[in-house]
Write a structure and sequence with these properties.
By secondary structure, the chain is mainly alpha-helical. The chain contains 5 helices and 3 strands. The protein has one domain (3-115).
Length: 122
């Protein structure tokens, strides 16, 4: 793995840690965290309709715009649950990026913006 790949993964690990600390600070339920941390991966069911539909479904639930918009709505409207959900969602995305899973291309599940999954990188 290239030094830049290590740096990117360390940055995402820091985002994951920050999301977990923020969730703790919010005082939200850890049962809810455990229940929802893998929920965005349900979007992989989109691959049952083919690689293009799968990539779209996966990317909708694995792009930062989703949890950031939900957090903004939670702050704007005083919805504590929305901010808690957004923090869990952000933690999921950050953990995925830490592990090397990126947004998908329509060419296949293993083709991501972080490089191919499972392939050796220089």
């Amino acid at each position: 793995m290239r030094p830049v790949d290590i740096l990117v993964r360390l940055e995402w690990a820091a985002v994951f840690l920050a999301a977990v600390v923020l969730y703790w600070w919010l005082g939200a339920s850890w049962w809810l965290f455990a229940l929802l941390i893998l929920a965005p991966d349900l979007s992989m069911a989109g691959y049952l309709a083919g690689p293009r539909a799968g990539a779209i479904a996966y990317n909708v639930f694995h792009a930062l715009i989703g949890p950031l918009a939900l957090a903004a709505a939670g702050l704007a409207f005083g919805l504590a649950w929305a901010f808690s959900f957004a923090t869990i969602w952000l933690a999921h995305i950050a953990l995925d990026r830490t592990l090397g899973y990126g947004l998908k291309f329509a060419t296949g599940f293993t083709d991501t913006h972080m490089g191919p999954i499972g392939a050796a990188r220089r």
